[in-house]
């Protein structure tokens, strides 16, 4: 949130300003029957194909909220967690333009975890030296859990210390319904809401490095076998330029997404808890399919609403 400093004013003018601000706040956040603030109504009200289950939230930067659907209660978010991991790493170790950053030594733990049978991992060998940017790509594009934990140890000395940073950043962004307990999202105890994660999406899309990485369909990294393919299969369709998938049995499928509107505006959205309790693969398919319908609906309806 941008904070604007209002210079001191004389008593009579100050009173008028105070009343005007109070009226503005009442209009945007009208009081509910119990006197507390009610959630703001959508700034752009469109007939959209919201997911029938789970929760979702979307907005158009510069125009406002498109609204939310589903009960905004904390749920597991799986690998969407890695967006905050990237945000914290780049805040501590910023990269400029196409800079690769420092070369980080792969430790034995990251090599051992690469063989974990029930996780999304990237094959790494102890002693390899891989740049910060390439590790961020290996975390965000194929969703390497072992890479996320390696970056956390490199940044803070331990995953536990890094998680404390993640939660501090969440609090600073106003993500009041979010709790991080790991850097990768494999823990079901890492929970959040679509509206909270939308706050994070808004922030990370200001970062050129993250924007470039999450828009990459596939890549090759020296020392890592084969071509690394992005788990976000919506890239390039309906203007989609990112962001991050997530899936687990408890989380179902999840997707934080960004799309470019035909008029140039940036559309952001988060869909969580799609087909929870089923297989992670089925959940991810549901998240991608329901997100695609929602994005296509926004792209279809937005031009008429903004004329």
Automatic annotation (TrEMBL):
One of its GO terms (molecular function) is serine-type D-Ala-D-Ala carboxypeptidase activity. It comes from Amycolatopsis australiensis. The chain crosses the membrane at residues 9-29. Residues 68-272 form the Peptidase S11 D-alanyl-D-alanine carboxypeptidase A N-terminal domain. Substrate binds at residue 244. Belongs to the peptidase S11 family. The active site is at 79 (acyl-ester intermediate), 82 (proton acceptor), 143. Coiled coil: none annotated. Gene3D superfamilies: DD-peptidase/beta-lactamase superfamily. It comes from the Bacteria. GO terms for biological process: cell wall organization; peptidoglycan biosynthetic process; proteolysis; regulation of cell shape. Keywords: Carboxypeptidase, Cell shape, Cell wall biogenesis/degradation, Hydrolase, Membrane, Peptidoglycan synthesis, Protease, Signal, Transmembrane, Transmembrane helix. This is D-alanyl-D-alanine carboxypeptidase (Penicillin-binding protein 5/6). InterPro entries: Beta-lactam/transpept-like, Peptidase_S11, Peptidase_S11_N.
